[in-house]
Write a structure and sequence with these properties.
This protein has about 425 residues and is of the alpha/beta class. It has 2 domains: about 120 residues, Aspartate Aminotransferase, domain 1; about 270 residues, 3-Layer(aba) Sandwich (Aspartate Aminotransferase, domain 2), CATH 3.40.640.10. It contains 13 helices and 15 strands. Strand 1 and strand 2 form a beta hairpin. The protein binds pyridoxal-5'-phosphate.
């Protein structure tokens, strides 16, 4: 019997005992092809020798020193690299232990920014209905997954939400993409005016929506419109790139393909590629300057922030991505993978849409292709797909659920960047 409180209390998962490249092995001798990088985490696959060597070297030198006393070379080098590689003046980095912690950090940094600007009334975030930003209380409150929020609702801050950019389901027949995008932006502006811009801290969104809606890229011009509204009404733009960042869509950050510069960027998953728990917030110069010239400190902090071994692992991951030109590989192999998916499933009666960017791809599953009618929640399709895939030695990341009153199932595919066309 396992003493771990597993995700499924009625059924413990298989026990992984080793992993290398795209293969994970369990204690029964079965092997699994990792076509989802876990949950879009393992961008370099498993047991990459350069990352392991960097971690070993760091452990031997300095495994831990608390940030209330010391900084460390690995964290400094990682932050410098992230600042140098990020566009614009995203020059400041706060290192934490994962995506949810990074989202909490961004929310608090944004709030303190408003307080220090003499605008303490600003206390609300606007977010989107189909979104996931993490499972800690602040991040959960921002996210759009009702099922995840429901038991904890009394503990959560209130968050007004607007529609996500979900062209496959929401663009009306005969409506152009431009008109659909304009309608989304009009909805956001109406929400800003309804709440009162003087009460708002910022707008939070995943640049490419990951788990809740299945690799949903924005329509052209959507984020440029969002940026314009944020500037017009004095809101910070906070982009969650925990899943879509760090090269997953073919550029280091997905927002680079949108022609916008957010004020804060939230990172996790691919930053450490699963080798160590690490997340980060990138902040623009004006955000940090305000705290620097104000109280002089960000009222936040965690025991494991800026962890030397986590920073060394993330640094090694980022060096490998650059050295091996993996961003280009993501674009090329991602396009090839998408073609293969179209060939295999383009005419499947239960695949409604095949979409995504780079190596963040998804199949949306429907009962009926013409009406786009989803499957009945009672059939627990996503759980069945995952189980059948695992039985056949394949890791994919299916999701389903009722989000904002709508039912949907999809299978997320996020292979390691090193995956070959054959794999
Ligand atoms: N934000 C997004 C977009 C995510 O996909 C996730 C995790 O799936 C998170 C935040 C939370 O990250 P973590 O699970 O590392 O806390």
């Amino acid at each position: 019997m396992s003493h771990i409180i597993h995700r499924n209390l009625r059924r413990a998962p298989p026990l992984a005992v080793s992993a290398a490249g795209l293969t994970v092995r369990d204690n029964q001798g079965r092997s699994y092809l990792d076509a989802s990088g876990g949950a879009a985490v393992s961008s370099l696959g498993h047991a990459h020798p350069d990352v392991l060597a960097a971690m070993h070297a760091q452990i031997d030198r300095n495994a831990y020193a608390h940030t209330a006393f010391f900084s460390c070379d690995a964290a400094e080098e990682l932050a410098t690299r992230l600042a140098n590689d990020a566009p614009g003046d995203l020059d400041h980095v706060y290192l934490v232990s994962g995506g949810s912690e990074a989202m909490e950090t961004a929310l608090k940094l944004a709030r303190q920014y408003c307080v220090e600007a003499g605008q303490p009334k600003r206390s609300l975030f606007i977010a989107r209905r189909q979104s996931y930003h993490g499972n800690t209380l602040g991040a959960l409150a921002i996210g759009g997954n009702e099922w995840r929020r429901r038991p904890f609702e009394p503990l959560l801050i209130q968050v007004p939400r607007v529609a996500p950019c979900y062209e496959y389901r929401d663009r009306a027949e005969g409506q152009s993409t431009e008109d659909y995008t304009a309608a989304l932006l009009a909805e956001l502006e109406a929400a800003i005016l309804q709440q009162g811009p003087e009460n708002l801290i910022g707008f939070v969104a995943e640049t490419v929506v990951g788990a809740t809606a299945g690799a949903l890229p924005p329509t052209p011009g959507y984020f440029r419109g969002v940026r314009r509204l944020c500037d017009q009404y004095g809101l910070l733009l906070i982009l969650d790139e925990v899943m879509c960042g760090m090269g997953r869509t073919g550029t280091l950050y997905a927002f680079e393909q949108e022609g916008v510069l957010p004020d804060l960027v939230v990172l996790g998953k691919g930053l450490g590629a699963g080798y160590q728990p690490i997340g980060a917030v990138l902040a623009r110069e004006h955000v940090v300057r305000r705290l620097h010239e104000g109280s002089g400190a960000f009222q936040h902090g965690h025991t494991y922030m800026g962890h030397p071994v986590a920073a060394a692992a993330a640094l090694a991951v980022q060096k490998v991505i650059q050295r091996d030109c993996l961003l280009g590989a993501v674009t090329v192999r991602g396009a090839a993978f998408r073609r293969q998916l179209r060939e295999a499933f383009g005419n499947h009666p239960h695949v409604g849409d095949i979409r995504g960017r780079g190596m963040l791809l998804a199949l949306e599953l429907v009962r009926d292709r013409d009406s786009k009618q989803p499957f009945d929640p009672a059939c627990q399709l996503h759980a069945a797909v995952k189980e059948q895939a695992m039985t056949r030695g394949l890791m994919v990341y299916p999701m389903g659920g009722t989000i904002d009153g709508r039912r949907g199932d999809h299978i997320l595919l996020a292979p390691p960047f090193i995956a070959t066309e054959v794999e």
